[in-house]
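go over my protein:
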Amino acid sequence: QVQLVESGGGLVQAGASLRLSCVNSGRTASSLAMAWFRQAPGKEREFVAAITWSGAYTNYGCSVRGRFTLSRDIAKNLVYLQMNSLKPEDTAVYYCAAAVGELRTTNLSEYPYWGQGTQVTVSS
């Protein structure tokens, strides 16, 4: 079973940086494609970034491309989202998602495993 735990959220000023992390803390190791989505109050859940199991493929949403960088430590089942030049519009709950295998998708319905989310708040 896969259990995802996000961390690293917080309250920062515009222009600051944060690094989010997501780990599969389940006892059974899996080869996982991983992704980040975010959801602001009253808004739809939005694709942020994705990375395949091999790390050879990454994809970013248009609103974060050039500011956010996704990387992973395969040995530790960790994925990192480095968030630079944060804007108030980035304020949301950020969710880690995962799927077994070398998945390449931005569709949230194709990710069966989800964390509980971590709050990111960016002040003006």
The chain has a mean pLDDT of 92. The longest strand covers residues 92-100.
